[in-house]
Amino acid sequence: MESSIEGSSESTTVTTSPSRRVRELLALCFSSVEEAGGFQDFESFVTELVSCLDSLYENVALDANNELENDVIEEVLDEILKVLSSPQMDQDVIDALSFHLPKVTSKFADISSRCLQLVEEIVDRFVEACNPRDMLSILCEALDAARCYHSASTCSTPLLHGLSKVFILIQRRHYEQLKVAVPIVLNVLKDISLETDVQVEDLFDKALGIASSIRDVSSKLNNEEEAKVRCLLCLYVIQITAIISVSIRDKAASCIPLVIQLEPFLTSCGLTHLGLITGNDTEKLMSTVAGDDDEFITSFPDISLGASLLFICAKISHEVAEAANAVLGSVVDELQNNPVKRWQAYGMLKYILSSGDLLWEFKRHAIEFLLDITKGVTSSQCNDEQIDCSDYTPGIYATLQVLSDIPAPHRFDVLRALVTNSRSPSMTAILLGLVKDSMSKSSLQDTDCAAVDTHVIELVELVLRPPQGGPPLLPDQSDAILAALNLYRFALLFESRGKERSKVGSDILSKKNLEKAYKEWLLPLRTLVSCSIAENLKEDHGQESSLDDVGLLNPIELVLYRCIELVEEKLKSH
């Protein structure tokens, strides 16, 4: 290898080994600092040292299987470590080198296990010798650069290890320093999780090391700063739960041993499984840590997914639940009895159901849990007070929209359970609208048709002939009634076209079900609607409330008569 050393006006060209050249450049850095006015030379030597290492890395990258080159790299790294560990090393020199060497040497970490060990020792040497606050920013910058390396997983290992030590060494403004570093760490971990050959256990060890370090920092603090650091720790743990779960490629059960190790971090901060699945805990945490800092909030894009997954993992394994001293049965009971918290849980489950990267097993458990919390809900549990669900409707609606990706039997099971236990006519209308959309958008196989027919009949009957007896209430339930009639009308037309194409009989179009719908749903409803319209027109002519009620009833009347016509036509064909 040829290189040029410029100490003054003279230039000397020498041929030397890379390790010897690195040793020479390090010696020149040291000597130039001791000379008066040598700072400019020092900077040029540092630049040449970095350039030398970069060139060496490029040569290795071109021939990754060259064992001779690998030996050369190990010699170079070993030489750097020896110089940095020397008792004679000037503090100014090591401080200046700390701005460059952690980043450039981390590139070599993936060449061999020996290289990884040497880079880790080099980073540790800087962490021990330099100002912790300086090293925090240096390592964060190096981590950000490592995201672009060929093997971000291995190259980031010594940097993350060093960062976990730096956290503990910081003496002041711990929370502010951590708040800057944690988003960078999460970005690196997210990138690693997306690698095709990611080792989940290795990824988890990296994440856990940072979490343990943050916990150790919080244990040294008092009062408000401790509370903020703990909240930041919880957000970090919830986010890495999502990152790790997405990286799992084989089976959800492999996530459980990892989650067991994360539970103590959350319980020490007072988080509960109920708070996680309703989103209340994450909302409080984010409010405490982020406030109005939108940029910081974007650093935790999967926080709701992570919170939901922590709960679902507890559902998968009783061992996880025991580790958190939680009884999942009590959580289910609470959600069954509290409609507001139940709606919040619906909104949280959408993050699992809509994720395109999670294993299906996670989604299956989420669906089972959704069915569990809608099971056994009675009207008496919801009628004690009038609860405004308008704040939760967008989240629930978004949750249900993702059901289109779920196989038909599961999808209709969920929708049927939600309609059965809905106490809001507007929410019932949304749910029935989703069933109609599902029928129109899905290309269902013949094997699914019978199940769909059965569910549609059940759902429409729940509204038009309530199980508690009596006719539906008008105009209070106008939204639900109109949606049920629209669903039934659509089903009649949908099944008629399907029957023409496949020549297969339909439950909806069977004589028995048509007669049932005609006599038990449609004719009684026609009488009810006609009487209601007449009564409203009769009472208080021109009164605004009466006119509003008529405006609600007119669309129902139009769709109702269309359904009656269609049923009469189908009955004639029998």
From TrEMBL:
InterPro entries: ARM-type_fold (IPR016024), Glomulin/ALF4 (IPR019516), YAP-bd/ALF4/Glomulin (IPR013877). Signal peptide: none annotated. This is Aberrant root formation protein. It comes from Arabidopsis thaliana (Mouse-ear cress).
